[in-house]
Amino acid sequence: MEIDSVRVESSLWIGNKRYRAFLSGWYFSWTEIDKRNREKKTISVPVSEVIGVKEGRVEIQPQKKVEDTDLDFTLFYVKRSSKGNGIGAPWSLGRAQFCCPSRGVRDQWITQLRTALKTHSPSRPHRLLVFINPFGGKKRGKQIFHSLVAPLFELAGISSHVVVTERANQARDYILKKDLTGFDGVICVGGDGMFSELLHGVIGRTQQEAGISEHDPTVMLQPCDLHIGIIPAGSTDCVCFTTIGINDPVTSTLHIIIGDSQPLDVCSVHYQSTLRYSVSMVGYGFYGDVLAESERHRWMGPLRYDYSGCMVYLCNRSYPGLVQYLPGDSHISSPRDNIRCLSGCRVCSESKERLFPHFDSSSSLYSTNVSQYSSELEGEWVTVEGRFKCISLTCISSSCPRSPKGLSPSAHLADGTADLILVRETNPLGFLTYLHRHTNTQDQFDLPFVEVHRVKAVRFSLPPGEEEEEEEVGEEGDREIQASAERVLEDPEKLSSSNTAGHSQQHLAGRKERGNVTTSRVKRRGFVCGPCCTKPRSISVWNCDGEILPHTEISCRVHGQLVRLFARGVEDSTMP
Ligand SMILES: Nc1ncnc2c1ncn2[C@@H]1O[C@H](COP(=O)(O)OP(=O)(O)OP(=O)(O)O)[C@@H](O)[C@H]1O
């Protein structure tokens, strides 16, 4: 066996097959050697993806089994599968049991592999604070943690303090108030609601410690060091899916163990003197109404979102609004450039210097001499007024298993911007086409009533005098809508092409009418009247990552790379 600081090489056996094993810097690889000394298949594992090295023959699945032999060692590592139900490859625990020619050689391999692990993977967590929502999703949070996650943490030598929550906001309050010394990260076992609790806790605590007033929308917030990990166990796990590429507890656990670190933009949403943070969606109109409706049907479980989506769609509402936004730099990226944010994204990595020009990497804090106030809010605001089916703002693509491209397919995780999507009033068929395109490969922004802008900040208010407005469609309009409703269910795409001109005309007509809309008192009805469309409404609610906001007038601002997740973005599946 040759050993020096960068290179270890020897013959090893797996079963009765001989391998040439080789550790060099960042990689450990083993190549099968046949009886004629010819090289066959090689398996190569980056040291940063080694989960652990154990003496003897060790198994942890289906249950833990250790056979302490003198000549063997077992290597656990990240293994990628080709198949999965996500946009990224699922990870599983790979295992290789090596037999060495002598105990001395075995001990040298173990020492060298563990040293390499410390050198090349220095930012792994050692101690984690875990919050389990026992009621999230299908109520399997505790089972998922104890059967899938805890054994992997133990194997990797990670200790965890587990809190099973007894009420909403317990995790957030714990992070804000308790002593967190010694923890390298906080983990939630639950859905997007639990993630949001951790997000609020971690950002709030970091600002408290830095003496920053987070309620001031002009202030530059302190980026958070404490990493957040998500073990998906909710009914919506959109942040996990977007940042990892799959909702799979084992894949997420392995990302946590190897200490992956993905910066993430966060949007602060200010209304009156209150504040919320959002990553996946701040939505008005359709998305607000769906959330409000679904809250009335909690007893249905995850099915309530489908049910409410249908009900609200059938109500066919649109709302007046005045939207102002501060555009991002269109030379850097655009929401329609078809560039997907993948692991190692160039746009995101190049954004760091722009976002933190005064960042002191040695202390991971801003220099104290720098102004607390952000220059990111300088620039010319753009104003858009109209009637909207929905308005949404998302910092990330917000993809999920049902919508693998997401709300904005080319949004970036960490470039300091969000995508603002304005869907103007259109007929039900047009809107259905828009919604349907989230689930297929067609461009949901390539519709005449849809606009998308890459922005740094957004303000929303009701146009003056619009608050009480109701809109009359009249019998003819109702008949036309009813007829399209019947056709809609047949084939939305086919029908939409024949209606595109109609959308534009309607859009233009809408614009013409807008001048005197404040004086008309009109009533718009859903084309199939259900229990939720008996009262015409001119004001919707904001859905902020699954929470209903109590105010209509809000102001939002993107904080680039404010938090870090144990993730690495979606891996490019075309890469070897
Ligand atoms: N023990 C608890 N009892 C009641 N609510 C809780 C508890 N623990 C956490 N919560 C709250 O439950 C909400 C939903 O949790 P989570 O996101 O984990 O599950 P979910 O099934 O995806 O939920 P939803 O579909 O409502 O987003 C969170 O906002 C969280 O604040």
Average predicted local confidence, pLDDT: 85
- CATH-defined topology of the largest domain: Tumour Suppressor Smad4
Instruction: Provide the number of structural domains.
Output: 3
Uncertain regions: pLDDT < 50 for 5+ in a row? 364-371, 468-531
Helix content: 25-40%
Distance between the termini: 30 Å
Which structural class should the secondary elements be placed in?
alpha+beta
Using the 3D structure, state the CATH architecture of the largest domain: Sandwich
Supply Rg.
Answer: 27 Å
CATH class of the largest domain: Mainly Beta
What characterizes the major β-sheet?
Answer: 10 strands, antiparallel
Q: What would a concise description of this structure say?
A:
The chain is of the alpha+beta class and 576 residues long. It has 12 helices and 26 strands. The chain folds into 3 domains: 119 residues, Pleckstrin-homology domain (PH domain)/Phosphotyrosine-binding domain (PTB) (PH-domain like, Roll), CATH 2.30.29.30; 138 residues, Probable inorganic polyphosphate/atp-NAD kinase, domain 1 (Rossmann fold); 282 residues, Tumour Suppressor Smad4.
Could you explain how this protein is built, in words?
It contains twelve helices and 26 strands. It is elongated, with a radius of gyration of 27 Å. The protein has helices spanning about 105-120, 140-155, 170-175, 190-210, 240-245, 250-255, 285-295, 305-315, 345-355, 430-435, 475-490, 490-515, and strands at about 1-5, 5-15, 15-25, 25-35, 40-45, 50-55, 55-60, 65, 70-80, 90-100, 125-130, 160-165, 185-190, 225-230, 260-270, 275-280, 280-285, 320-325, 360, 365, 380-395, 420-425, 450-460, 540-545, 545-550, 555-565. The strands form six sheets. Strands 15, 16, 17, 18, 21, 22, 23, 24, 25 and 26 form a ten-stranded antiparallel beta sheet that branches. Strands 1-2-3-4-5 form a five-stranded antiparallel beta sheet, with helices on one face. Strands 12-11-13-14 form a four-stranded parallel beta sheet, with helices on both faces. The chain has about 575 residues and is of the alpha+beta class. Helices cover about 25% and strands about 30% of the residues. Bound molecules: adenosine-5'-triphosphate. Adenosine-5'-triphosphate binds near residues 137, 168 and 234.
